Amino acid sequence: MQGHFTFRALFIGAFLSLTINIFFAYARLAMATAGMSSDYITAGAIFLFFLLTAFINPVIKTVKHSWGFDRSELIIIYVMMIIGSAIPTWGFTANLVAMLPAIFYYATPENNWAELLHPYVKYWMVPHDAEAIKYFFEGLPKGERIPWEHWAVPIAAWCSFIMAIYLMMITIMVLIRRQWVDHDRLTFPLLQLPMDMVEEGEGQSKISPFVKKPLLWVGFSIPFILFSTSALNHYFPFIPAIQLRNSLSLFNYALNLQTNVNFVAMGLAYFLSLDVGLSIWLFHLLTKVQMTTENILGYSLPGRRDLFMEGSMSVSYEGMGGMLVLVLFGLWTSRDYLRQVWRKVFHGNPDLDDADEILSYRAAAIVLALASAFVTAWLCMSGVPLLISLFFLFIAFAIFYGLARIVAEGGLGFARAQMTAQPFVINAVGTQAVTEPGMISLGMTFSWAGDLRTMVMASAINGMKLADSGKVRGRPLFWAMILSIIVGLGGSIWMIVWMGYTYGGINLDWWFYNRFGEIVHGDTAFKIANPIDPAADFHTIFPRFMFAGIGAGVMGMLMWARHRFLWWPVHYLGFPIGATLTIIFTWFSIFLGWLCKAIILKYGGVTLYRKMRPLFLGLILGHVFVSGFWVLVDFFTGETGNRIPIF
């Protein structure tokens, strides 16, 4: 049966996306609570979706059964929510908004930004009015209105740009979806929970079969009770908080391992294939051994460490080399399918049916080409030379594509790359080739291609896979995604600007409102004042790209062995992300989930594995729900700083 789209599903999906972008953004930035819209797990979407499926929908069906949301409608709502979850906080808007005026607000005679940066800033990229900037960080005087007129042009410019970026992300996933889903048969572990939540009971049943499983509530209660003690300790200090974050030091403190218990990561690990789970925690340990050896020997790459690098510089470049090989090798193995897509786009190949895709392949290719041209032109207008723009976009989207693949196959609710595209490009071509205006523009691209823990590309492919299971992959799903993006951008930008002028940005979240813009522009100023040339600075630049080559070689051998030998025990997926902060804090929980699955399969087989499935879904749901529950409690009590971490 083909799923159907309804106006009310689109309305509820848009409303809940707006809720995620306004309420959960406010909770994170003003109340200092959990990041419910910060990672690929899309915790805010899961929390709201559970309330809808487990409580609200049964009540509606009790009043009149036909009024309840059916499976197709629920899938549409959830897809819109996970798209919307990729926009606020670490997705884009919280990175961007305060960074724009920070280039003027944090300028001092000591950092010399007035000379190094201000002459090269394009007028249309940032607000310029001194009072508007001051009041954003320090709060409006009583009775004054928000000076939106000084924000209108930069917000319009950046929104048009990011919309084109999002269109590129979505259309790339449209073109590759069939390869990943039908040919590679990726498992999409992040969808295990929502797929169960949209189950429908038999006949006139009002309650989802999902909530009738006792093991689900056993798993749910464990993180809910444990984390609630920490939340109650915030209100009542005499209640002891249970410590779930620990570390282990070895070899006279030379090697430090985080041994945190994260129930989301543990639950998701249960749904990974054993070789993928092994890959993630094993490569983290091997990476830590490499960094520890470097520290003991006193070895480090020459030169200054760049922003948002994970691990040592050598490990960061190894990860970048591995990520590029992951993407290029994956595209090579998909070449037969991509040829079919090419023939479909240009010759109408009848052998490849795209009737059920959210866009036809021809339409997706046209949108991708137009959006790419717009993004390239925008970067050129901002000061980045044409060839540098194309090189930067290639590296940035290779990272996006690789992360989307890792999330789809590895089911990581928390993931990021070991380094970003900006330093890779600048070190490869030199600062003179980028030019001063280009350096400032590339610095500002850290808002959407830098310190990211979530993105629309991964949400789009997860949404398409979920919609495929509910047979709702028609063209309207594309417009549902676009609606969610528009609502999310508008809601989150309004909220972040409003909070700045209402409370004063310096009184709000330290990282987003203050530190992020300061370090991004400070890094740009340093690079302009200390130019890099690949030839003149060969002794500094060459070792970095040598390690990128080593990482590429290791990744290539791992992928070759994986495809060549059936007995090869270790998947390659964990190599490019082994040293990232997200893996540092979740590897131990992934190990525990992997170990549980290995033991269950060994002694109970597939039958016991399936019986225990609700328990691990409960661990994920309980951890997410307890964070969302205490966000609501704190909001109504006016409490701040009571953070029940998702990550």
Description:
This protein is an all-alpha fold and 647 residues long. Helix content is 66%, strand content 1%. The chain is built from 26 helices and two strands. The chain has helices at 7-29, 43-63, 71-85, 93-96, 99-105, 113-116, 130-138, 152-183, 192-197, 214-235, 263-269, 274-297, 313-333, 335-347, 361-382, 386-410, 421-429, 431-434, 436-444, 446-449, 456-469, 476-503, 510-529, 538-564, 581-584, 587-637; strands at 247-250, 255-258. A two-stranded antiparallel ribbon has the order 1-2. A hairpin with a 4-residue loop joins strand 1 (247-250) and strand 2 (255-258). The longest helix is centred in the last third of the chain and has 51 residues, at 587-637. The radius of gyration is 24 Å and the shape is globular. The mean pLDDT is 93.
Average pLDDT works out at: 93
- Give the amount of beta strand, in percent: under 5%
Reading side by side through the largest sheet, how are the strands ordered? Answer: 1-2
Instruction: Give the structural class.
Output: mainly alpha
- Give unreliable regions as ranges: none
Number of helices: 26
Classify the helix fraction into a percent range.
55-70%
Radius of gyration, in angstroms, nearest whole number: 24 Å
Can you tell me the overall shape? globular
Summarize the biggest pleated sheet. Answer: 2 strands, antiparallel
Distance between the termini: 39 Å
Series of H and E elements: HHHHHHHHHHEEHHHHHHHHHHHHHHHH
User: How many DSSP-defined strands?
Assistant: 2
